[in-house]
Amino acid sequence: MYTDPRGGHNQKTFNKDFFKTWSQEMAYVLGYIYSDGAIEDVRKSSRTCYIAITSVDYDILYKIRKSLSSNHNLYVKKQRVNIFPGNRRYLCKQGYILRIGSKSMFEDLVNLGLTPRKSLTLKFPEVPIELLRYFIRGYFDGDGCVMVSISKGKRMPSITTVFTCGSLEFLEELNYLLTKITTSRHKNIIHGHHAYQLSYRKYDSLKILNFMYKNLDEAPFLDRKYDKYQKYLQTL
């Protein structure tokens, strides 16, 4: 356990060696940071580096903070409007942020493949095969979704699993690994607004969800997305 020696408002504890050793929890948190996290090198102004993890779901940040053995505050990110090219406006929901200052943790994450301003250059890291489900679950909880719908004229609902990323290379490697492990075949990659989406439908979607949600007690998961998957299983 590490306590910042500067004291005062810096008197926060956390496991600064968390990303030095692979584990189920480490793989999950790394996957989540790959989707909804960022690393900042601000040593020129404040002599340290930061890891910032965001979510609209307070509960998942609480679980991640617990995994990191952290007592940092979870701050509120107020609802705001983002403006994109063409004067398109998007209303961002209120969210939460966990921000930890640590040069050591920053360097460990860089060694694991993360870079500042990573969204368009993201590459899939080298994850031990036995921990891949946890990394993908973490990424999915940040930048994925599961959709259940009923088509006109059909009784049974359909399920779709989607992963979103600004890097096509990342999604292509993710698809390669999921295809290899789950034998899924029917995928679709489309280019939307500022991002790509990798999606799987029906039985391929279920194969991937079953793979991700195996061994739930060994790493965190976002209840909201898991519950949607469970409700769909009840319809089969």
Can you give a write-up of this model?
It contains eight helices and twelve strands. The chain has 236 residues and is α+β, with helices and mostly antiparallel strands. The chain has two domains: 2-117, Roll (Endonuclease I-creI), CATH 3.10.28; 130-233, Homing endonucleases (Endonuclease I-creI). Strands 3-4-8-5 form a four-stranded antiparallel β-sheet. Helix 1 (24-36) runs parallel beside helix 5 (132-143). The radius of gyration is 19 Å and the shape is globular.
**Low confidence ranges:** none
How much helical structure, as a percent, in the residues?
Answer: 25-40%
Named at the architecture level, the CATH assignment of the largest domain is Roll
CATH topology of the largest domain: Endonuclease I-creI
Regarding quaternary structure, what we see is single chain
Query: What is the name of the CATH superfamily of the largest domain?
Result: Homing endonucleases
Number of domains: 2
Based on CA atoms alone, the radius of gyration comes out at 19 Å
Quick check: average pLDDT? Answer: 88
* H and E order: EEHEHEHEEEEHHEEHEEHH
